[in-house]
């Protein structure tokens, strides 16, 4: 686990992501059924309307040849257009009360995992009205998820929407199967309390998805593409190296506080982050946005790195480490 508590700056729940998070996808989180609405728009279940670039272009674009390796996707980072709010408040890692607003976030996690694992019926039942609020029947809901070859979702901090509702920010990105075209959608899921939960002996979910509100916004870059930010996604050499909690830890066989910094990666004891953006923050400091994975979870976060004047120590997440070697 990372030595410091992760933040919500685009962290998916306390780690919900992984292809699990993929789950959310589609032209909306309720599904991806194509319903033409006119003027080039696509009407979606859950009262969402998303503008698509050019239906004919998308429909006729040729997908890559079978077996062709596609580059990794780099979604908009927290605070960027199309990204989640840049929320740096540490995650509350205490036990979650299922009835609380954080419990609503847990339901979103279950929804994501069910979709990722192909348990579409389970995902469908997490919509209010035994799936009816998704705007689709169960068969159409299941078919809709076959339109994506790659899907990822980032989840922001759940917030109260009133006494009976909760709002969960979401960012969905990935590729369409027919064209391999990347997409990014940002918005929220609104969950409502489930009155059935309060009946004696009930085992139903305390929260159910009521609506999804997503819009096309932001640009997903492909790793290796000549995007404007590509040259900025490199950590300067002054910060690179192996860093430990103290000099003795440098020779320890397993240092749980170790941090290895390369030009494109931050490696902690049980997680690693692929750098997506580096921004100068003073004479000897940078802010590094990265996509992290570890212990079966994926998330995105920003960290501030500050190196000492002599280059022998590094401050990261309020923890000072010394250079090894």
UniProtKB/TrEMBL annotation:
Keywords: Signal. Residues 65-102 are annotated as: Disordered. The keyword Signal applies. The keyword Signal applies. Residues 1-25 form the signal peptide. This is C-type lysozyme inhibitor domain-containing protein. It comes from Sphingobium subterraneum.
